[in-house]
Amino acid sequence: MEVKPVMTRKLRRRPNDPVPIPEKRRKPPPAQLNYLLDEKEIEGDLKIISRGKLLGPIRKPALLPTSGVSSLGPSLPENSLPDTRIEDGKLLYERRWYHRGQPVYVEGKDLPRFAAVISAIGTEAIWVKKTLDSSKVRIYISQLSRGKVTIKRRAS
């Protein structure tokens, strides 16, 4: 004779039953850091930084290669790339915020100046619609940060 365990289904908790304690999930360990510079370059940079603190500001810091977005703030030289980025569907360019539907002038090294309206702002580019022929032009953030294309506000 086989004895099978009786399965009971609990549809709801009884008023006097203890509350079951859920198992806690552990957080994953922090990811390991991947250094882009080798030890000698890091030591050299630390020496330069420590000398600068002892002797005062002697020279401007070297321009680090970035993707057009400056995260270093005031430590970059004055003539470096402008702070250009997209946040919350808005474009920050030359210390001004631009949003969808805003009238602008677009000018580039290979483009004549034309009036346009910002029609869309993506993650890496913005789309502007020319007011003359309603054609759309895509402008990458890298073009804006390098100065290949510039935009300026215009009265609506």
Describe the structure.
This protein is of the alpha+beta class and about 160 residues long. It has a domain at about 85-155: SH3 type barrels, CATH 2.30.30. The chain is about 15% helix and about 25% strand. The protein has helices at about 40-55, 140-145; strands spanning about 85, 90-95, 95-100, 105-110, 115-120, 125-130, 135-140, 150-155. The strands form 2 sheets. Strands 7-6-5-4-8 form a 5-stranded antiparallel β-sheet. It has a 3-stranded antiparallel β-sheet with strand order 1-2-3. It is flat. Residues about 65-80 have low confidence and may be disordered. This is Sin3 histone deacetylase corepressor complex component SDS3. One of its GO terms (biological process) is regulation of gene expression.
Short précis:
With 156 residues, the chain is an alpha+beta fold.
Question: Any descriptors?
Answer:
single chain; SH3 type barrels; alpha+beta; 2 helices; 156 residues
**What's the SSE pattern?**
HEEEEEEEHE
Report on the biggest sheet.
5 strands, antiparallel
Which shape, going by the Cα principal axes? flat
Q: Helix count, per DSSP?
A: 2
Rg, alpha carbons: 29 Å
DSSP summary, beta strand count: 8
First-to-last CA distance: 90 Å
Q: Order of strands across the biggest sheet?
A: 7-6-5-4-8
Secondary structure class reads alpha+beta
* Weakly predicted, low-confidence segments: 64-79
Which CATH class of the domain at 85-153 is shown?
Answer: Mainly Beta
CATH fold-level topology of the domain at 85-153: SH3 type barrels
Rounded mean pLDDT is 76
CATH structural architecture of the domain at 85-153:
Roll
Helix content percent band? 10-25%
Biased composition (Polar residues): 67-82
Protein name: Sin3 histone deacetylase corepressor complex component SDS3
Keywords: Nucleus, Repressor, Transcription, Transcription regulation
Subcellular location: Nucleus
